[in-house]
Design a protein that fits this description.
The protein has 396 residues and is of the alpha/beta class. It has seven helices and 19 strands. Strands 5, 6, 7, 8, 10, 11, 12 and 15 form an eight-stranded mixed β-sheet that branches.
C-alpha cells in the first residue's frame, strides 16, 4: 500500500522545456519538447519497503494514475536532458576517457535497448556494446550469467542510466548488476565497478546503518568518486550515504523561475538526511551539531512533483515513457557531473573546496528536528541539500 503522503495528489510543475543545449559535439539536433503534465498525479515507491536487515531498497518514485497503475506517456513527460543541463549549467559533454558505473540489484535484460530509445529521443550519441560505450556485467564482472529480472529494480536501473546519459552523454557507461539487493551483493558489485576502472560509481539505494560496517570498505575506493542517494522517506540516515567515503546526494524540488539563473530550488520533503550513529566525520565536514558523519553533501532534483522523463519497463513485457522522482534521480545526475569534470577526486571532499560552484538551497524541510539545519534548508550547509546543487561541474 502507498503511504498517505505518496497517495496525495500532486501536480508536476515547471516542466516547460528550454532551448536545446549542444549535448553532443557531433550532433546539433533539436530536442523534442517534453509533454507538460497539467493534471493531478500521484507517485509511489518503485522498491517497496521496509526491507530486511542488511538489505537495501532503491530510492526512486514513479508517477501512477488514479488506479495506482504506473502512468505511461506516448511522448516524454518531465524534465529532459536540456532542462537538467540548463538548470545545473552543464556545458561539457564528457568523453570516453571517463566511465560512469551504475550499480543496481537484479537483472535488466532490456537495459541497452531502452537506453538507446532515450538517447535517440533526445539527440544523444549512441552508447552501445558494439561501439564500446556500454558494458553490462554481473557482480563478478562477467558479461553473462545475469541475475533474475526484477521490475522495480529494472526501473531504477533505467532511471540511473538515463540520468547519467543526460549529464555526461560522452562518458562510457558500465552497468554492474548485483545478484540481489543484499548489502553483501551490492558491495561486491561496487568492488567490481572499481576494479573495472570506473571514474565514478553511482548507487541509488539504501538501508539501515545497523550491520553496515562490514560492507563499508567496498565504498572506500581511492581516486574514485562514489555517489549515494540519501533516501526517499524524509529525515533519517541511510547507508551507504552515511559512509564517509561517498558523496551523499540529497534532493530538491526544481522549478523554472524569473531570475538570472532561470530556475529555483527548495529542499524536497522526501530527501534523507541526518547524523550517522556509526561513522566518523570526514575532516572536510565542519557542521556543529553532528559529531559524526553528516549527510548529505550535495543535492539535485528529486521531487516527483518536478520529475524526469525516463524510458523504462512499465511491465515485464512492455516499455514506455515514465516519470520518476526520488534521490535516485539526484545520485546518477551528480555522478554525471563527476564524469564531465573527469579529474582526480578525494572521496566527497571536492564540493567542500568549491562551494562557490554550487547553488545554495535555503528553504524547505524534510522532517522535524527543532528547526535546525539537520532537516531544514538554511543559508550554507544543511542536511537535506548539503552544500547545494551544481552550478557547472567545477565542484566535482
Amino acid at each position: 500500500m502507498m503511504t498517505p503522503m505518496a497517495r496525495t495528489s500532486i501536480r508536476l510543475i515547471g516542466l516547460l522545456t528550454g532551448s536545446l543545449l549542444a549535448v553532443a559535439a557531433s550532433a546539433q539536433r533539436s530536442e523534442p519538447e517534453a509533454a507538460a503534465l497539467r493534471f493531478p498525479v500521484r507517485h509511489t515507491e518503485v522498491c517497496r519497503g521496509p526491507v530486511a536487515p542488511e538489505t537495501a531498497r532503491c530510492h526512486s518514485h514513479v508517477i501512477v494514475d488514479s488506479s495506482d497503475n504506473i502512468q505511461a506517456f506516448a511522448t516524454p513527460a518531465g524534465y529532459g536532458p536540456a532542462d537538467l543541463r540548463s538548470a545545473y549549467k552543464v556545458t561539457g559533454t564528457g568523453s570516453a576517457s571517463s566511465t560512469i558505473a551504475i550499480v543496481d540489484a537484479f537483472g535488466y535484460p532490456n537495459a541497452e535497448a531502452n537506453l538507446a530509445v532515450y538517447r535517440t529521443q533526445f539527440g544523444l550519441p549512441p552508447c552501445t556494446t558494439a561501439n564500446g560505450c556500454f558494458t553490462k556485467v554481473n557482480q563478478s564482472g562477467v558479461a553473462g550469467s545475469y541475475p533474475r529480472f526484477n521490475l522495480g529494480w529494472s526501473q531504477e536501473t533505467a532511471l540511473d542510466l538515463d540520468m547519467a546519459s543526460a549529464i555526461c552523454p560522452g562518458c562510457k557507461i558500465l552497468l554492474v548488476e548485483a545478484t540481489s539487493n543484499s548489502s553483501a551483493n551490492l558491495a561486491a558489485a561496487v568492488t567490481t565497478a572499481g576494479a573495472m576502472g570506473a571514474h565514478v560509481i553511482s548507487n541509488s539505494y539504501g538501508g539501515s546503518e545497523s550491520g553496515s560496517s562490514k560492507y563499508e570498505s567496498a565504498y572506500h575506493i581511492a581516486g574514485v568518486a562514489v555517489t549515494a542517494s540519501s533516501g526517499d522517506s524524509g529525515y533519517g540516515v541511510q547507508f551507504p550515504a552515511s559512509s564517509p567515503h561517498v558523496t551523499a546526494v540529497g534532493g530538491t524540488s526544481l522549478v523554472t523561475a524569473s531570475n538570472a539563473r532561470g530556475w529555483s530550488e527548495t529542499a524536497w520533503s522526501g530527501a534523507g538526511s541526518g547524523c550517522s550513529a556509526i561513522y566518523g566525520k570526514p575532516h572536510w565536514q565542519h557542521d556543529p551539531l553532528c559529531a559524526k558523519r553528516m549527510e548529505a553533501d550535495v543535492s539535485a532534483v528529486a521531487d516527483p512533483n518536478t520529475g524526469v522523463a525516463v524510458y523504462a519497463q512499465r511491465t515485464a513485457a512492455t516499455s514506455a515513457w515514465l516519470v520518476f522522482g526520488g534521490t535516485s534521480v539526484a545520485a546518477p545526475l551528480i555522478a554525471g557531473m563527476y564524469g564531465v569534470k573527469d579529474t582526480a577526486v578525494t572521496y566527497g571532499r571536492d564540493p567542500y573546496q568549491h562551494v562557490s560552484s554550487l547553488f545554495d538551497v535555503t528553504s524547505g524541510s524534510n522532517g522535524s528536528c527543532g528547526g535546525t539545519y539537520l532537516c531544514t534548508a538554511v543559508v550554507g550547509y544543511d542536511g537535506p541539500t548539503g552544500l547545494g546543487t551544481p552550478n557547472g561541474d567545477n565542484a566535482f
